[in-house]
Amino acid sequence: MQGKDEDKNNRVKLVLSILIANFIRLLRIIPNNDPIMSMALPFSRRSSALTSFAFPFMTMSSFDFVTGYVGPWTAVTAITYGTVGMAFHYFLKGKKDVGMKLYLGCGIVGVLFFDLITGVIATPLLYGGTFEESFMGQIPFTLMHLATTVAFILIITPVLDRQVVLNAKLDDDRVWALVLRIAGT
Asked: Looking at the domain assignment, is residue 181 inside a domain?
């Protein structure tokens, strides 16, 4: 099942994934420590267009809120990431056999689009400078962004896809039943 009905049963999974993505980002263990693309892919494949937009949008926004850097850049990056998530939804919707090769291809295209919008186009508009300077400065960043995205897709996407998104034990009704049982009600 895919879409709004599944979204209603995936809220716990989404919130946990947002928290995990932001925790990984806060660790700053590698440059451009951003697992959002790798985590958006399974949700975009198996959720509604709204959730596919909301997951990366909320992850970007909440990270900036927690780190105290909310501003125009938050809107640009969150909306761009949300758009990428929604594009993944429409591209992956209905595909039965989605393997690592397709996920990697989506991730690479997603990074190139995200970095073009945020790095090449938005940076000079928000902070000054020329588009040429932004383009040249963006090249090493995008290469690093591609490398880290590929690594996160290889590590996180299959685990999230099989062990979280498809795991009925983590469905909202089961999680809340367990919470109520533990609470003794």
From this structure: no
Does 87 reside within a domain? yes
What the block records as the tokens of 116 is 């073009």
Q: 122-159 as b/e, with b when 16 or more CB fall inside 10 Å?
A: bbbeeeeeeeeebbeebeeebeebbebbbebbeebbee
Instruction: Look up the CATH number of the domain holding residue 108.
Output: 1.10.1760.20
Q: Is residue 1 classed as helix, strand or coil in its secondary structure?
A: coil
pLDDT in tens, 40-85: 998 888 788 998 999 999 999 999 999 999 999 999 999 999 999 9
Specify the 3-state DSSP secondary structure of 29: coil
Under 8 Å CB-to-CB from 18, ≥6 apart: which residues? Answer: 55, 58, 59, 62
CA-nearest of 95, 108, 91 to 52 is 91
Domain that holds residue 31: 4-172
What's the domain count of the chain?
Answer: 1
Distances (CA, A) of 90 to 2, 143, 168, 182: 12, 26, 24, 39
Residue whose entry in the numeric block shows the structure tokens 């895919």 = 2
φ, ψ of residue 32 to 5 degrees: the values are 55, 50
pTM of the model: 0.86
